[in-house]
UniProtKB/TrEMBL annotation:
Coiled-coil regions listed: none
Domain Xylose isomerase-like TIM barrel stretches: 34-297
Species name: Streptomyces cyaneogriseus subsp. noncyanogenus
Protein name as it appears in the record: 2-keto-myo-inositol dehydratase
InterPro entries assigned: IolE/XylAMocC-like, Xyl_isomerase-like_sf, Xyl_isomerase-like_TIM-brl
Length: 300
């Protein structure tokens, strides 16, 4: 039997049920997601896109607690590299999500940079590389956000490197970490997105361990990823091809990632996310059950 990973708190998210949007007829209803994530054996969930789950704190708290669930984090997308002009609009969005996250007793806000190309059409929205000034806007903006979110809502931000954003590759992630205050900004390491962009999750944890504040557990199908790279396919169509796959069939191997995280000696959430929007409504639950069983076999 593997050593118990007693510092790792495993959960899942609406993303693993094919949920990318607040309201979409191709997604499972929110109450079915809550029923099934509990049935699969998870104790923790994320809020997903704001508006998918009920946004009234009293109602959401009741729906979550009566299923034996707790909330680990909320999520926001930001475009802080665009500079001070976007701050007010960004804060309005962040405050709404942070207030609900705080009301649910969670301690984290997952912050994802905005896409540089459309995740459906591949239309170029911005250059894929930031200028020096934009890097400064991004890093200073995230520090400002981390300070404000903690001051106003008592939450820690964890910034999520993501495919088709300016925070993706090992080079970009290390530059970001080296340029930001560890006391204000930590990382949500998504093992699938980092592998998708060529990064080594175990190496990152072992090198920047004090900056890892949260984990998303995800795997990539290496054969499909090779096609995606060769054909420069954007993230949305890549997901529809099945680039994010069910553990343990892809990369990275999650057992060493979890062991490296455990060795940090701090409590960490490890939230399962298997991107598969859109998907048949009966597909997620069996995968979630098998994935939970696999993670238990790793000690989590």
């Amino acid at each position: 039997m593997p050593a118990p990973l007693d510092r790792i708190r495993v959960g899942s998210a609406p993303d693993s049920w094919g949920v990318w949007f607040p309201d979409d007829p191709r997604q499972v209803p929110w109450d079915r997601f809550l029923d099934e994530v509990a049935e699969a054996g998870y104790a923790w969930i994320e809020l997903g896109p704001y508006g998918y789950l009920p946004t009234d704190p009293a109602r959401l708290g009741d729906e979550v607690s009566r299923r034996g669930l707790r909330v680990s984090a909320g999520t926001v997308f930001t475009g802080l590299h665009r500079g001070p002009a976007v701050w007010d609009g960004t804060w309005e969005q962040v405050a709404r999500v942070a207030a609900l996250t705080q009301a649910m007793g969670a301690g984290h806000l997952v912050v994802i940079p905005s896409f540089w190309r459309d995740d459906k059409t591949a239309e170029l929205l911005e250059p894929p590389e930031l200028t020096r000034e934009q890097w400064s806007h991004l890093t200073r903006g995230m520090e400002r956000l981390g300070h404000r979110v903690r001051e106003s809502y008592g939450l820690d931000i964890v910034v999520h490197p993501h495919a088709d954003t300016h925070l993706d590759t090992e080079e970009h992630v290390e530059r970001f970490l080296d340029s930001t205050d560890p006391g204000l900004v930590r990382l949500c390491l998504d093992t699938g997105h980092y592998a998708y962009c060529g990064g080594d999750s175990v190496k990152l944890i072992e090198t920047y361990g004090e900056r890892i504040g949260y984990l998303h557990l995800k795997q990539v199908d290496p054969e499909i990823l090779a096609e995606v790279r060769a054909q420069a396919i954007p993230f949305g169509p890549a997901v529809r091809r099945g680039v994010m796959c069910e553990p343990p069939s892809g990369v990275p191997d999650l057992a060493p990632v979890l062991t490296a995280a455990q060795n940090l000696g701090v409590d960490l959430f490890a939230i399962v996310e298997q991107d598969m929007y859109p998907c048949p409504p009966d597909k997620p639950l069996p995968i979630a059950v098998r994935t939970r069983r696999f993670l238990r076999s790793c000690g989590a």
